[in-house]
């Protein structure tokens, strides 16, 4: 484009020079005049300097006009290029805004889909919780029926014992057998106590390891509370056992005195002691196991509460408030669901957030204790 402008200027310049030369030639007189008497004369040509100056000025002005025209053309093209660049930038900006708007719309649609998916997941979890509650109710009914059956069996055993009292033909031999059975029962009880102690020690060691992985501070505090509670309960159990032993010793002494009077009554008392002792021991073993499970559930509940309180964001408004939570855990302690039973709303929201932060609670190896802990209710009170 610039080469064309230069070519145009050159043509104009050549044209002006040609015009100037033509004017100069036009002003000259090339005609021949005959000389007067036999001689040659030279005819002079007069050139007007003013006219040449005027023509030179015109040529100069034309050149300057051509330069101004060329400069104006360049300026016009520059403005056109700038306008084109501005329009292109505006077009790109509009395209970018349209792209961003489309991206925002896609993001909003994705978030809406995610929200709907989350809502369906919560609904499914609530449905599963209802189903598990129904199963738990059915299990409770079965347990009640089994308890009734056990009671019927106990009564049947009692009736059998009463009938056994009528058997008086087995005298000293039956008494010896009763004593032997009592010794064997004592040995079996001691074995069970040893096995129970070993299992408790192994369970305690495993719990300590898992608790150390979860929170060292929670382990220390929970262990301290559990040991204090265990000592208190052990002292109570020891005291009860001593009182029961004294009572049984007094009864045995009384029975021995009565047996010295009448041999037949001694034999009957021995049979009564055998059957009653076996039944009491069976009930005692069952009661001790239930008490052990209840103690372990309470101890783990204290650990869970401590872990929740460590992750609880405490506010001044929580002072004096409490929240009752119901947690549903998996077999390895993962939190499947947590709901508010009752209590302060703000505190319960903070407590549920703390449960989500913990995400996984320690579980014992004993399946019966773990089963009790999978659906546990806790009362959270800010410290």
TrEMBL record:
Disordered as annotated region, ranges: 57-267
UniProt biased composition (Basic and acidic residues): 60-122, 129-141, 150-262
Name by which UniProt lists this protein: Cell envelope integrity protein TolA
Keywords (A to Z) from UniProt: Membrane, Transmembrane, Transmembrane helix
Superkingdom as given in the UniProt entry: Bacteria
Keyword Electron transport: no
Transmembrane segments: 6-26
Database matches in InterPro entries: Tol-Pal_TolA
């Amino acid at each position: 484009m610039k080469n064309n402008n230069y070519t145009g200027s050159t043509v104009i310049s050549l044209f002006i020079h040609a015009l100037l030369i033509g004017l100069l030639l036009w002003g000259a007189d090339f005609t021949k005049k005959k000389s007067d008497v036999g001689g040659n004369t030279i005819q002079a040509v007069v050139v007007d300097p003013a006219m040449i100056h005027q023509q030179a000025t015109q040529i100069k002005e034309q050149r300057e006009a051509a330069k101004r025209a060329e400069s104006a053309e360049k300026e016009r093209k520059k403005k056109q290029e700038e306008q084109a660049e501005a329009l292109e930038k505006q077009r790109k900006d509009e395209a970018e805004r349209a792209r961003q708007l489309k991206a925002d719309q896609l993001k909003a649609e994705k978030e809406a889909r995610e929200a709907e998916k989350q809502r369906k997941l919560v609904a499914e979890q609530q449905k599963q919780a209802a189903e598990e509650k129904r199963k738990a109710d059915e299990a409770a009914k079965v347990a009640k029926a089994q308890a009734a059956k056990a009671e019927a069996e106990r009564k049947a055993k009692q009736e059998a014992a009463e009938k056994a009292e009528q058997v008086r033909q087995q005298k000293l031999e039956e008494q010896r057998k009763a004593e032997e059975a009592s010794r064997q029962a004592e040995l079996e009880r001691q074995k069970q106590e040893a096995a129970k102690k070993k299992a408790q020690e192994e369970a305690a060691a495993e719990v300590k390891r898992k608790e150390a992985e979860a929170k060292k501070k929670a382990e220390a505090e929970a262990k301290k509370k559990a040991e204090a509670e265990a000592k208190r309960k052990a002292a109570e159990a020891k005291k009860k056992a001593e009182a029961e032993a004294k009572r049984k010793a007094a009864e045995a002494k009384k029975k021995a005195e009565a047996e010295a009077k009448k041999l037949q009554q001694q034999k009957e008392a021995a049979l009564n002691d055998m059957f009653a002792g076996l039944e009491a021991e069976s009930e005692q073993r069952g009661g001790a196991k239930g008490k052990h499970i209840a103690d372990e559930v309470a101890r783990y509940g204290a650990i869970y509460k401590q872990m929740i309180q460590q992750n609880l964001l405490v506010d001044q408004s929580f002072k004096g408030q409490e929240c009752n939570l119901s947690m549903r855990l998996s077999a390895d302690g993962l939190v499947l669901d947590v709901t508010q039973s009752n209590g302060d709303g703000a505190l319960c929201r903070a407590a549920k957030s703390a449960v989500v932060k913990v995400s996984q609670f320690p579980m014992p190896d004993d399946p019966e204790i773990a089963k009790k802990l999978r659906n546990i209710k806790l009362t959270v009170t800010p410290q």
